[in-house]
């Protein structure tokens, strides 16, 4: 996930100033919902960096929600399965990365499964009763 907060970016992504890393934060936590308090504490380190308030608030929300989704993804795994979080703050952007080590999700297979269940343009889906 990337946030770029300069509306009129004067620099190109290849510009060295644009890619200047100001700070990198990393943490590894167990897949336990109780550790969300540690995530909140950890993300507070962004408060002292030159990040616009709106981006800061959205980043906090994204990190916490991403962590909670990763914990949910690990529901059938031991609670000591790790979740790694990383935030890289650059001069003009912020990158958030969340790695969970749960079972991989096959998006295409799930999409195909859901499409077989119902036809969004079928008569039943539009409220008509087919007998």
How would you describe this protein?
Helix 1 packs antiparallel against helix 2. The mean pLDDT is 82. The chain is globular, with a radius of gyration of 20 Å. With 131 residues, the protein is an alpha+beta fold. Helix content is 31%, strand content 23%. The longest helix has 21 residues. It has three helices and four strands.
- The coarse silhouette is globular
Q: Name the beta content range.
A: 15-25%
Assembly level: single chain
Helical fraction: 25-40%
Spatially, the strands of the biggest sheet line up as 1-4-3-2
Question: What is this entry, summarized?
Answer:
This protein is of the alpha+beta class.
Question: What keyword list fits this structure?
Answer:
alpha+beta; 131 residues; 4-stranded antiparallel β-sheet; 31% helix
């Amino acid at each position: 996930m990337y946030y770029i907060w300069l509306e009129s970016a004067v620099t190109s992504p290849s510009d060295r100033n644009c890619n200047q890393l100001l700070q990198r934060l990393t943490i590894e936590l167990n897949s336990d919902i109780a550790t969300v308090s540690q995530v909140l504490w950890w993300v507070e380190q962004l408060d002292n960096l030159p990040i616009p308030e709106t981006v800061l608030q959205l980043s906090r929300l994204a990190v916490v929600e991403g962590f909670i989704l990763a914990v949910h993804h690990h529901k059938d795994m031991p609670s000591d399965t790790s979740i790694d979080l990383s935030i890289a703050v650059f001069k003009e952007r912020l990158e958030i990365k969340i790695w969970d080590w749960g079972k991989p999700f096959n998006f295409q297979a799930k999409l195909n499964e859901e499409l077989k269940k119902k036809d969004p343009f079928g008569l039943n889906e539009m409220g008509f009763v087919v007998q």
